[in-house]
Amino acid sequence: MTGPELANHYRGYIVCLNAQAWPQLGDFVHGHVVHNGRQLGLSGYRDMLIGNFADIPDLRFNIGLLLSDPPRVASRLYFDCTPSGEFLGLAIDGQRVAFTENVFYEFRERKIVEVWSVIDKAAIEAQL
Amino acid sequence: MTGPELANHYRGYIVCLNAQAWPQLGDFVHGHVVHNGRQLGLSGYRDMLIGNFADIPDLRFNIGLLLSDPPRVASRLYFDCTPSGEFLGLAIDGQRVAFTENVFYEFRERKIVEVWSVIDKAAIEAQL
């Protein structure tokens, strides 16, 4: 895929997440995906996302910046949401928080095989 | 600049930082640079970096992942260093810590005009 094609494919992945369209997740995520050094595989990755939506009922992924340099994508995601309990070890307890995630992805055969993510925890702490 | 040219130019910026070659910083950083929403300008940006090296005497920037999608660069930086006192509000006090920074840059006329950086504070906390 060209850079623009890979960027469009990535946008489809974000649409899939926001729709919680889990049967389609395998179109975007590789069976042996690794997330921040953990070998989750597709089912573990899906379980992580389902858990995120359970912990944050109004979770929505918003793309701020998007770079495509095949086979990699880098994205700055914006969140404005209300974790119901604990999040990143912080007691949020239903407070609304806004924060960002700077995340890198590597694709193989149109599917994400590795993710390197950093969430701006300090920004959340500053809002508590 | 093409993608590979911008990536090479960015590598020169990292060489400049590690050499603490402050008179050359203006070759890479715009006079009106904004860092995480703060309008620092070149002198404020330089002061921030000088402060980082003062707080972390063995600071060294290591590029892990590098994406170039002109006019933007995304980089995952690795650090393995020894902050002498407080860092990100954490009392490090001379302990060696390893952590990453996922950071986006926008260039204009070969110079960085905006930076969006997230440091993995949770990873540092886990080492204390």
Give a written overview of the molecule.
2 copies of one chain form a homodimer. Chain A is an alpha+beta fold. Chain A has 3 helices and 8 strands. Chain A has one domain (3-125): Nuclear Transport Factor 2, Chain: A. Chain A has helices at 3-18, 41-55, 121-125; strands at 29-35, 38-39, 62-69, 72-81, 86-87, 90-91, 97-108, 111-119. In chain A, the strands form 2 sheets. Chain A has a 6-stranded mixed beta sheet with strand order 2-1-8-7-4-3. In chain A, strands 5-6 form a two-stranded antiparallel ribbon. Chain A starts with a helix and ends with a helix. The model of chain A has no long low-confidence stretch (mean pLDDT 97). The interface between A and B is medium-sized, with 24 and 24 residues.
Quick take:
Chain A is α+β, with helices and mostly antiparallel strands and 128 residues long.
Number of E-type strands of chain A: 8
Largest interface: A-B, 24 and 24 residues
Helix and strand run of chain A: HEEHEEEEEEH
The strand line-up of the biggest sheet of chain A is: 2-1-8-7-4-3
Helix content of chain A: 25-40%
**CATH topology type of chain A:** Nuclear Transport Factor 2, Chain: A
Strand content of the residues of chain A, in percent?
35-45%
Main structural class of chain A: alpha+beta
Compute the CA-based radius of gyration of chain A: 15 Å
Give the CATH architecture of chain A: Roll
Question: Mind sketching the topology for me?
Answer:
The structure is a homodimer of 128-residue chains.
Chain A: H1 3-18, E1 29-35, E2 38-39, H2 41-55, E3 62-69, E4 72-81, E5 86-87, E6 90-91, E7 97-108, E8 111-119, H3 121-125
Parallel strand pairs in A: 1-8
Antiparallel strand pairs in A: 1-2, 3-4, 4-7, 5-6, 7-8
